[in-house]
Design brief:
6-stranded mixed β-sheet, 2 domains, 5-stranded antiparallel β-sheet, Rossmann fold, alpha+beta, 20 strands, single chain, OB fold (Dihydrolipoamide Acetyltransferase, E2P)
Amino acid sequence: MAEKPPIISIQGVAKRFGPVTAVDAVSFEIVENEFFALLGPSGCGKTTLLRMLAGLETPSAGEILIDGQDMSRVPPNRRPVNMVFQSYAVFPHMTVEENVAYGLKVVGIARGEQQSRVAEALDLVKLAGLGGRKPDQLSGGQRQRVALARALVKRPKVLLLDEPLSALDAKLREAMQLELVNLQNTVGITFVIVTHDQNEALSMANRIAVMEAGRVRQIAQPAELYEFPNCRFVADFIGKMNLFEGRIAASESDRLKVEVAGLGAIEVPRPEDAAARPDGAEVGIAVRPEKVRVGRDTPEAGSIAVHGTVGQIAYYGDASHVYLSLDQGRTISATVQNDARVAAPGFQVGEDLWCSWHPGDMLVLTA
């Protein structure tokens, strides 16, 4: 199958506000019909990058091409994109239909076509029959759909979404995540979403760019990003992670022996980028909490195992997070699924337990 062509090409783009560099020499491409996420903590530059795509900010350096056209001299209203803001920005004095039709009216679309396109857009976002209502007669989720319909009615090639679900409560936010994915599949256009919520990005996007301090640290599909982060920052930012600092004691063709405080000497699979790391070099050692098994029985042979004392148990309904204190003040967490209907967790604070994991579940991070 032929690869899809890029709809967005970002080439060496930077944005500076006086002495502050908000986006620092970023380059990547987004393909047609992709659901792409810009993910990172507050202040990492993701919203600034989205605003440059929309034309609301001008790059200090670099080029942005959309559908093969250089956007440097194209004003926001002439770009083949539309943007949905965090605050929805719907007009309170207009009805739903008037809100959705506003952009078409501004560019002079005939009234008959306005009506048909508005009806089509409202049907897409499941607001058919609510066109006569005012925004204050709608729920938060319905107002979000109005903003989506108003953006889609102009039939952009790219839809930009700036933290579109952050104002919704947790249950509605989860429902809207599924609706956005279904909507993107239905309309078949490129979605670019900015979010600081890792679960939102993992559950919705085809690919995710993780940003830190204005730079893109890794771009990957959700499963690859979660299971194979390329640096300490991504490993720690995506999901929960037990991260230890270690020192290479010896290296072989397929494995490393690493001295880790609190864990001792352990053998781990050798990563591809470890070739240039000499004995004695510092590396990060990481394992996800759901890969860690806890119990009273001696772990199976071949596992990495260590004794710990339960210091805290956090109950979340479907699972519990068990935090164990190791030697030298180290702590490790394990996720224990609550797969039996009981009123109390299976382990108690203060109990001594084994925690163990398979060596192949460990990550060696050289950056």
